[in-house]
Amino acid sequence: MSTLLEEKPVEKKEERTPVKRVSIIVSQGSLEKVYPALIMANGARMEGIEATLFFTFFGMDAILKKKQDKLKVATVGNPAMGIPTIVGAIPGMSAFATKMMKKEMEELDIPPVGEFLEMIEDAGGEIYACKAAFEMFHLKKEDLCSQVKEIITVGDFYEKSAGAQIIFT
């Protein structure tokens, strides 16, 4: 019979290897999909962790000069919104949700996308555009914001990410 006063064996603490590098893939261009990637990359740099952002498919909207300040909250098919899909489809609902989210972010002093990308680059983070998506959407280099270091292939991304924790948002 065991008692509360019995000595328990000392558990060995698992040694954790600190994260040294992260590579974050941004594949979606809605506000609630882009910001987590930006916050994680910025947080990594503030902790001294190398950070790479790889924008592909609709995530490219965040690095396109004409679109980065016009990202919206997805209200249709977003279970986190807590509203039925039919309500999310009502005209103006996405604009309303976007306005509310931007207001909350402003109150928390969270910078707009362009400024966030600039902060990440200034802190030593690297920002890349996906060559396949770039070509598929018929983009030009001048369509991209200045923080994009290079347009690279998936193979290049994996090479640059060797040894990094890969995060898909």
UniProtKB/TrEMBL annotation:
Entry superkingdom:
Bacteria
Where does the UniProt annotation place the signal sequence? Answer: none
- Sections of the chain in a coiled coil: none
Quote the Gene3D superfamilies the UniProt record gives: DsrEFH-like
Protein name per UniProt:
DsrE/DsrF/DrsH-like family protein
